[in-house]
Design brief:
The structure holds two protein chains of two kinds. By secondary structure, chain A is mainly α. Chain A has 15 helices and no strands. Chain A starts with 21 loop residues before the first helix and ends in a 10-residue tail after the last helix. Chain B has three domains: 4-46 and 59-88, no CATH class; 99-204, Cupredoxins -  blue copper proteins (Immunoglobulin-like, Sandwich); 217-304, Immunoglobulin-like. Chain B has seven helices and twelve strands. A five-stranded mixed beta sheet of chain B has the order 3-2-1-5-8. The longest helix of chain B has 33 residues, at 11-43. Chain B is elongated. Classes of the chains: A mainly alpha, B alpha+beta. Chains A and B meet through α3, α7, α8, α9 and α10 of A and α1, α2, β7 and β9 of B. Bound molecules: copper (II) ion. Chain B: Residues 1-92 form the Cytochrome oxidase subunit II transmembrane region profile domain.
Chain lengths: 551, 308
């Protein structure tokens, strides 16, 4: 008897853009490129929604003692804003870029499990829709994106919002686990035979490492979510102290997922930056091995830092010291990466294109967010400043200045590949400057507000010295970001109406996706170029000065 | 003064110092990153250097040196962190708190176990003395934070947390609940009044006096209404059988300058508005609207305002 099951050759072609008709082709597609684009559209749609929520928040906080929005609504809005931006924008955008690019970058024609790929996408989409359905079912979740018990338990909820939160996130969590499995299997089994693991483009490598993080983090979250769902629906007592449960247990579950999640969102951006900066500096990445290896260090360490979100719950000094040390340690590989990226620019020949601009903004803003992050590893500083606007500012520097700026760099960079059209760089610069300046105006000032004592998650605040003017300016910054985003959408709309003009390799880049037409055919590669180094197209274009052979 | 504690930095100063060290080091690192980013962008722009650069792949030696520098800086901060932590959060084996505070949605209950004073929202402490606080919660997670007086510490039902608080000068210190705790989290603010030890003692003695009685007709009517309208199901009056702590203790309510967790000044108009419809003043609050008639409110106000 054979140990292997023969996989039958597909008789029919799988549904996709080229074979099917119209919109149904999208809905039924299992093509990784279509799914990747759908992930990106999903992220974009939710980015608009989450952005409007942010604008509501800033409108309410523009003035002290404002009563534009009721506290009940405000709490729903900020909860939904955070949840949306993390689970329905940054996650699907990173997964989407990965889904689109991984097969192309490793010389494969599909993901390892095309149907699982579609399933993952639709799970994420369904989760997002359920989450938003809560608005029509009495009220959205209102206990914050980390949904602390017991505030999130039945006794303290007046709506079913938290139930929608739980079920919605369980679904997106399942989607993320599916995507992670797919990434790992694809990278391990479908690489072009020439490509050894140490020759992977860094974007692929980061997504690959990241997939392991996701695979370990999301089951933790889902376990916690299920426990709370059982609490709420069947009156269990996992997180209710009054009946023998523990509110702190929820915090452990959530942050044991939640901190890796920060890196899950950051690593893809690191990957993008590691592609963009070398290409536009005309040099290979500085310290490939270090950048690759330090990601593993980050992934491992990110599992031992979660309690730095809990320095004020009253853990002992010993426990706090352990988590302080591990949190500071994780700063080392992250910080050194920044030096590698800057080192890549050293003695380069830098083209300051729109993707490169975003990469530069990433370098500066992410460094800033990383540094304020270190201040939270210094336990006594957390004892003063956690849960203030200083913290809000910090994590927006990480999530926007880091992840989002990285994603923007990636979108401007790969847009020509995906659509066959180049985004207008003049509008791109308007988008860039408005967004980056607005971002810094809003969030830099919030550090000051935090030090002045303004706590986060308040729908209104008294007219204390400086609070008014700082909040007003923060709102002004938000308006600038809003206008910047409108220009970005206009740019996409305008560009998509133009004919396809872009050739295979408009940026003169080096990785395999640029060896396909823009956009690629349904079948990615009829013939895969031979790969001997980390930069196959460089070798082809510079036959007299190729990279060192690695195989 | 020979107060031993004054010879050292206070907890707040210790933390501020640590923050300043951090700011200096982080500032230098950030300045370097900005400098090199802009410097390279200008110096190595493609216009200036159109030719293909040499394809350098990095240097392991540089990498190693940088890693050693980073680790050294980290080690220094680990040391400073643990050192400060141990000074600030130094709780004795059998803690005897001077002040016990319980967070409620959305007000503060305060007990002084040594003297037996029980009060709410308006919190008094003596100056020049390190005060041990015991913190817990009656419902969801809250967090106690008065930035000028000490660290912040979460209040969790079923858990007793301890921390130190210290006021050097007399005066009012503002703070706020800093863990999201539901609808009115924003209005769960703190005001701590620090008095010199003598005045503090006098305040305590006043709080320990039995509840005021009066023969004023309106006062008595209010007192009766207070019981009939089930106010006593939630509010305690010391020296009576009513000991519920779902709402603030009202024994000496009229002696407080502000009420509703520092939201409103304690005057007749505000009290009237509150009793007319609590939900309109602080929506979502855990006190129902009793739909009282004007005359009932007159009586209740006379009673509560009489509780000096
Ligand atoms: Cu609170």
């Amino acid at each position: 008897m054979s140990l292997y099951i023969d996989i039958p050759e597909d008789k029919e072609q799988l549904p996709s853009l080229k074979t099917g008709q119209g919109k149904l082709a999208w809905m039924a597609s299992v093509d990784h490129k279509q799914l990747g684009i759908m992930y990106l559209w999903l992220a974009l749609v939710f980015f608009v929604i989450g952005g409007l929520e942010a604008m509501m928040i800033r409108a309410q906080l523009a003035l002290p003692n404002n009563d534009l929005i009721s506290p009940e609504l405000y709490n729903q809005i900020f909860t939904m804003h955070g949840t949306t931006m993390i689970f329905l924008v940054l996650m699907p955008a990173s997964i989407g870029l990965g889904t689109y690019l991984i097969p192309l970058m490793i010389g494969a024609n599909e993901m390892a499990f095309p149907r699982l790929n579609a399933f993952s996408f639709w799970m994420t989409c369904l989760g997002g829709m359920l989450l938003y359905f809560s608005f029509f079912a009495g009220g959205a979740p209102d206990a914050g994106w980390f949904n602390y018990a017991p505030l999130s338990e039945n006794n303290y909820s007046s709506t079913q919002g938290v139930d929608y939160f739980l079920v919605g996130l369980i679904l997106t969590g399942i989607g993320s686990i599916g995507a992670a499995l797919n990434f790992i299997t694809t990278v391990l089994t479908l690489r072009s035979p020439d490509i050894k693991l140490n020759m992977l483009p860094l974007f692929v490598w980061m997504i690959f490492v990241n997939a392991f993080l996701m695979l370990a983090a999301f089951p933790l979250l889902n376990a916690g979510l299920f426990m709370m769902l059982i609490d709420r629906q069947f009156d269990a007592h996992f997180f209710l102290a009054s009946t023998g449960g523990s509110a702190i247990l929820w915090q452990h579950f959530f942050w044991a997922f939640g901190h890796p999640e920060v890196y899950i969102i950051a690593l893809p951006a690191f990957g993008i930056i590691s592609e963009v900066i070398p290409v536009f500096s005309r040099k290979p990445i500085y310290g490939y091995k270090f950048v690759a290896a330090s990601s593993i260090a980050i992934a491992l360490l990110s599992y031992s830092v979660w309690a730095h979100h809990m320095f004020t719950v009253g853990l002992s000094n010993t426990v706090n010291a352990f988590f302080a040390i591990s949190s500071m340690l994780i700063g080392i590989p992250t910080g050194l990466k920044i030096i590698n990226w800057i080192g890549t620019m050293h003695k380069g020949s830098i083209r300051l294109t729109t993707p490169m601009l975003w990469a530069m903004a990433f370098l500066i803003c992410f460094t800033f967010g990383g540094l304020t992050g270190i201040s939270f590893a210094i336990v006594p500083i957390t004892w003063q400043l956690t849960d203030t606007y200083y913290l809000v500012a910090h994590f927006h520097y990480v999530f926007l200045g880091g992840s989002l700026f990285g994603l923007f760099a990636g979108i401007y960079y790969w847009f020509p590949k995906m659509s066959g059209r180049m985004l207008c760089s003049k509008l791109g610069k308007w988008h860039f400057w408005l967004f980056v300046l607005g971002f810094n105006l809003t969030f830099f000032l919030q550090h000051v507000l935090g030090v002045l004592g303004m706590p986060r998650r308040i729908f209104t605040y008294p007219d204390l010295p400086y609070w008014k003017v700082l909040n007003m300016l923060a709102t002004l910054g938000a308006v600038m970001m809003f206008v910047g985003m409108a220009i970005f959408f206009w740019n996409i709309y305008k560009t998509l109406k133009k004919p396809r003009t872009v050739g295979e390799n408009p940026w003169d880049a080096w990785t395999l996706e640029w060896a396909t037409p823009s956009p690629p055919e349904l079948k990615n590669f009829d013939e895969i170029p031979r790969v001997h180094s980390r930069r196959p197209l460089w070798d082809i274009n510079n036959p007299d000065n190729p990279d060192k052979k690695l195989n | 003064m020979t107060n031993h504690y004054l010879l050292q930095a206070t907890d707040v100063e210790l933390i501020a110092n640590l923050f300043n060290y951090f700011l200096i080091v982080a500032g230098i690192i950030f300045a370097l990153v900005i400098f090199y980013t802009f410097f390279y962008l200008i110096r190595y722009g493609a216009k200036r250097r159109p030719e293909t650069p040499s394809q350098v792949e990095g240097s392991e030696r540089v990498e190693l040196i940088l890693a050693i520098i980073a680790t050294t800086i980290t080690a220094v901060f680990v040391y400073l962190t643990i050192n400060t932590m141990e000074k600030v959060q130094d709780i004795p084996e059998n803690p005897k708190p001077f002040l016990e505070i319980t967070g409620h949605q959305w007000w503060w209950e305060a007990k002084y176990p040594e003297s037996g004073v029980i009060t709410a929202n308006q919190i008094y402490i003596p100056t020049g003395k390190k005060i041990l606080l015991k913190l817990t919660s009656a419902d969801v997670v809250h967090s106690w934070w008065v930035p000028e007086l000490g660290r912040k510490m979460d209040m969790i039902a079923g858990v007793n947390n301890y921390m130190w608080m210290y006021a050097e000068k007399e005066g009012e210190y503002l703070g706020t609940c800093s863990e999201f705790c539901g609808v009115q989290h924003a209005r769960m603010r703190i005001r701590v009044t620090a008095l010199n030890p003598k005045d503090f003692e006098a305040w305590q003695q006043k709080q320990l006096l039995p509840v005021v009685t009066s023969t004023d007709a309106l006062f008595l009517e209010g007192k009766q209404l207070f019981e009939e309208k089930t106010c006593t199901n939630c509010h305690a009056i010391n020296g009576t059988e009513f000991k519920q702590n779902i709402g603030p203790n009202l024994t000496h309510f009229a002696s407080r300058k502000r009420f509703l967790a520092d939201m409103k000044e304690n005057n007749e108009a505000n009290l009237r508005a509150w009793l007319t419809n609590p939900q309109a003043v602080k929506s979502g609050v855990k006190m129902p609207n009793f739909i009282l008639s004007d005359s009932e409110i007159d009586a209740l106000v006379a009673y509560i305002n009489g509780l000096k």
